[in-house]
Amino acid sequence: MFRAADKLRGNMEPSDYKHVALGLIFLKHISDSFEAKRAALLAEYPEGAEDRDEYAADNVFWVPPAARWSHLQANAKQPTIGKLIDDAMEAIEKDNKALEGVLPKDYGRPALNAVMLGELIDLVSGIALGAEKGQSRDVLGRVYEYFLGQFAGSEGKRGGEFYTPRSVVRLMVEMIEPFKGRVYDPCCGSGGMFVQSEKFVEEHGGRLGDIAVYGQESNHTTWRLCRMNLAVRGIDADIRWNNEGSFHKDELRDLRADFILANPPFNISEWGGNRLREDPRWRYGIPPAGNANFAWLQHIVHHLSPSGVAGVVLANGSMSSTQNGEGEIRRALIEGVTGAPGVVDCMVALPGQLFYSTQIPACLWFLARDRSNGVARNAKLRDRRHEILFIDARKLGHMVDRTRKEFSDEDIETIARVYHAWRGEEDAGAYEDVPGFCRAANMEDVRSNGHALTPGRYVGAAAETGDATPFVDRFNALQEHLEAQFAEAAELTETIQARLAGLALP
User: Fold this and answer.
1) How far apart are CA 431 and CA 193, in angstroms?
2) Cβ burial, residue 61 (10 Å; 0-12/13-18/19+)
3) What's the CATH number where 47 sits?
4) What is the 8-class DSSP label of residue 254?
5) What are the tens digits of pLDDT across the range 193-211?
6) Are residues 234 and 85 in the same domain?
7) Cβ pair 117, 134 in contact under 8 A
8) Which of 86, 241, 256, 357 is most open to solvent, judged by the fewest CB atoms within 10 Å of its CB?
9) Domain DNA methylase adenine-specific: where (predicted)?
10) Which pTM does this prediction carry?
11) pLDDT tens across 128-144, in order?
12) Alpha-carbon gap, residue 232 to 139, rounded angstroms
C-alpha cells in the first residue's frame, strides 16, 4: 500500500508528501470511528445519534457531514477536492477543541495535483475495508505507524528527527515494562514511545486506562504528527509544544513519571546551556555548554518518581567521554552524590545501522531512582546498588535493506529477559553472565575502568565453540600448512623465472 501511495507523489518531496498522505489516513480513521459509533447509536438509541456527548464518552471525535469520508470519496474526482479536504479539516478542528491547530490544511494549494489527491483518496478508502467491527481503528493505526516509518526512511537524517525505529522502541518498552503509572517523553517526536507502551499493556493483559501519557516536543510540525498518531490509536495524552524545548521551558515542571522513554538528539552543541548554569536539575554536575547529552540524562532523572525507571537512547560517546566534566557527571550518576542516589542500572551497546538519522554508534541507558529494590508489575525487585548490568548487543539484529538493521522479536526477548532476570523478576529465570554478551559488574570493576560504561570493557570475549583441539596441536598444524604453501610458492617462482629467461627478446 505504501508503494502504491508513494507512486502517486510524483515529484513531491517525501517530507511534504508525508503530511498529505498521513492527514488523509487520519481523516479516514476519525470518520470511520464516527460512522461506526453513529450506526450503533441509530440501532440502539436513535435519539442519541446527534448527541455529541455520546461520541465524546467513547473518545470518538465528532465529524460534521461535510468532513465525513463518504462525502470526500464521492467528490474525489472534482478539481476542487483540495479545498473540500481543507474545509473538512477546518470543520473537524472547530468541533473538536482537542484537535485545534493539529490537522494539515494546505490541500488546496495550486502546487498540489488534484488528480493525485483523488487517487490517494481512492487508495486510502481501501484501508480496513472488510475489517470486522472494532478492528478498523487498529488496522488504520498500524497503517499510520508503518507509513511514518517508511517516510522516515525516505527522508533519511531528517526523518530520524521525528521517528525512532520501532524495534528500538519495542526493546526499550519491553525492558522497563510500563504497565501502570505515568509515562513521559521529553522529546517525543511522533509519539512512537507512547504507542508501544500502550501495546505493551494490551499484550500483557493490563488495562489501557492504567497508564497516563505525557510528552513535550519543540518542533511544531512533529508535534502535530504526534497528536494525530496518538489520536489514530485512541490514546488520550497530554502532549505540550513550545519552540523553546524542554530545557528552557519545561512545560511539565511538576511531573514525576513512573516511566520515561526518550531518544533525544545526539550531541547537540547549541542547546543554550550557558543560560542554565544554576538550574536545580543539575544535581549530578553542570552539563557542558557544548554537548546536551548529560543535560538530557539529568532532566530525565529529575522527572522520575521515587521508584521510576527510564530508558534513554544516546550516542556511544556518552559512555566514556571525559571532556568538559562529563566523566565526573557520569561518575556521580553511577555512585550518587549527597542527596541523590546512583541511578545507572543497565547499559546496552547497540549494533550500527539501526537509526534513520545517524550512523553514529548508539547505546541505551537504563536508569532507576530506587536501585535498592524498585517495582516491576507490582513485584519487588532485588537490591542492585552494588552492580551494573552490561549487555553487548552489537552482534544482534538483521539487515532489512541495504542500509538499515532491525531487531527481531527473538533479539528483543533475549535482551529484555537478561535484564529482567538480573533485576530479580520472578518469571524471568535465574541470571547468568554470558561471555561476550552480558555481565553483572560490581562497582569495584566499574571504578577500575574509570567509570566508563562501555559494555565491551566488561562482558569479555565470547566463549570459543566447535573446536576442542589443543592450541599447541592446532598451531603446529597451521605452521606445517603455511610452510608447505611457502615451498609451493618458491617452486612457482622458479618456474616463472625460467620461462621468462627462455623468451627471445626482439
Assistant:
1) 28
2) buried
3) 1.20.1260.30
4) T
5) 999 999 999 898 888 889 9
6) no
7) no
8) 256
9) 136-464
10) 0.84
11) 655 554 566 667 777 88
12) 10
